[in-house]
Every structure is written in C-alpha cells, then in structure tokens.
Amino acid sequence: MHEPVTDKQAQVQGDEAWTEKLSGVVALCLALAILVCGLWIYLPFFEPICWAIILSLFFHPLYQKLVKVLMGQRMLASFIMCFLIVAFIIIPVFFLITSLTSEVLRVYTAGMSSLQTLNLDIIPDPHNYPTLNKLTIKLLKAFKLYGTDLHGTLAELARSAGEYFLKQGTVVFRNIAVLIFKSFLMLVILFYLFTDGENMLRAFKGLLPLKKESVERFMKLTSDVLAATLYGNIFTGIIQAGLGIFIFWALGFSAPILWGTILGLGTFVPMIGTAIVWAPASIYLLVTAQYLKGAALLAFSLLVISQIDYFLRPYLISGKTELHNLFLFLGIIGGINVFGLLGLILGPMVIALCMSILELYRLNLLEREEAWKKDLLI
To answer: Which residues contact 342 (CB under 8 A, 6 or more apart)?
Structure first.
C-alpha cells in the first residue's frame, strides 16, 4: 500500500516542480538569446545569403541534371554551376546596372531640360472647346492639380523618380570592395548550398514541430508555389524585359534598357501588364507620324511579348499552385520598399511562403472537419 503524502513531502514535490518549470523557462530564454545572437552575427551577410538561396532554388533543376551527367560528382557540378552563374548572370547584371544607371541619368537630364521649355497650358479654350474644358478641369481637380504650378509639380515628380533610380544604381558603385566581397561570399554560400543543400533541407525538416506527413505536405506546397513564382512569373518577366530591350533598341529609342526593364516589371501589374509601356510608346510613334515603327512595335508587342503570358507561363507552371498577380504586384512593391533591389525577388518569395503556410493550415483544418464528421457518424 502507498503511504499517505505528508505536508512536508507535498511541499518538497511542489518546490521541485516549481524549480523544474523555472529551469525550463531559463533554458528557453537562454536558447532564444543564443539564437538571437546567432542571427545578429549573420545579419551583415543577409543579402549574399538571400541571393545565394534564390539562385540555388532557381538553378537547382539544372544542377541536378548536371550531377547526373557527371555521374554523381557533386563538388565538380557545384563548381561548374558557380562558374556559369558568374559568367552568364553576375557579370551581365553588373553591366546591365551600369548601362541602366547611365540611361536613367540621361533620361532624367533630358526630361528636366524639356520641362523648362515646355508650355503646359493644357486647359483647352472654354469658348472653342467648352466640353473638353470642363472635362480637363474636373480631371485636374480630381488629382488636385488645378490651380497649381504644373511645371513645378512635374519637375518635382521627375526629380524624385530620378533620384530614386540613381540611388539604386549608384549604390552598386559606392563601395566596390564591399560589392566584390559580398559577391565572393555569395558564391561560397551558393557552392555549399548546391553540394549540401539537400542535407540542410532534411535537417530543417527535422526541426519543424509538425508530423512527418504535414512536413512533407508543407515542403511540397512551398516547392510548388516557389517554382510557380520563380519560373512562371519572374522568369517570364525577365524574358519579356529582354524582348522589350531588343525591340526598343531596334526601333531607335534613346533608352532601350530603361524602357525594357520597366516593361519587364510591368508584367506584375494587374490587368495592364506589359502594355503599361508598349501601349503609350506605340501611340507616341503613331501620333508623331512614325507609322512604320509604331505598327512594328504594336505588332511585336501583341504577337510576341504579350503571348509569353499565354504560352510560356502556363508551361513553366504546369499545374503548380500559383500566386495571384495582385499578391505578386504588392509583394514586389513592398519587397523593394523593405529590402531594396533584393526585394524584387525576395518579396514575392516571402508572400509565397505565407501562402504555403495558409494553404497547409486550410488542408489540416479540412482533415480535422472530415475526422470530426466520421466520429459523429460512428
């Protein structure tokens, strides 16, 4: 028979339980403090780590094929992939940013010069065009521009936009040594992500406080959403930007890289898409009596650039879970605002991860409802 617990024994047991709880709280706080310190140490390398992760995700299918070709030589395959990324991604992007910065500066200077000499009396004569006069005044009032100095307003807008783009471009050249160091660090991280990325992923799965089935489902959802985001949206945007640069260069536009880049970003604008650039450009060419160039730009944009959304994007996505264009657009804008140039890709990826978590929650909730209904029937 068990002896009754005395008050002294109960007090001792209570003290031990309290001590155990206190030890658990102290251990948890200590672990969190160490984790925060670790993240703080890695914070200066946030950009190269993120770029390495993005590139490893983007080129992982190609890396796997290369490993098969090299009969399992993962180290050699990683070295070749890093070399190809330097030759065909990093160096071209560096020259692209250089050219883009110079074009922004040239367009900004030309725009400011034009604003100084432009006559902005855009309100039609009320006697000759009464209806158009009223419509123009209503439009200006809607945008709070009526009675203001349009020269000053447009000059301020042009100055702000020019300063923003120049800041994004000149930051690359602000400290070449830091840029080279971060690029080298990114390549080192990328090399080990290629070789040991699968082992790291398995270790990460083991840390998730979920059932094995839930972990696999979460990884599958995340993989599908990221693949749809990277290949179905960002990759098609890059292709459309390249085509835009080509057609604007062929038609003799003064800043083809700038307008082509903006056209590529326009891919993510809901409803309008790439037409945000090529439609006004086509109208401008037609209005200025450049009918052949206007027709060529319009035909190329409709038959080639716009068709990528209907043929290439569905092929790359191929049934995977896709983010809505509105979420992509807001993710890019918010990402650029928070992370700078890195946010162009990191923003949609973070939104994709959020959508994966919500989708996993929805599926688990549906499973619980099904189990609850079965229990009721039993």
So the answer is: 47, 50, 51, 335
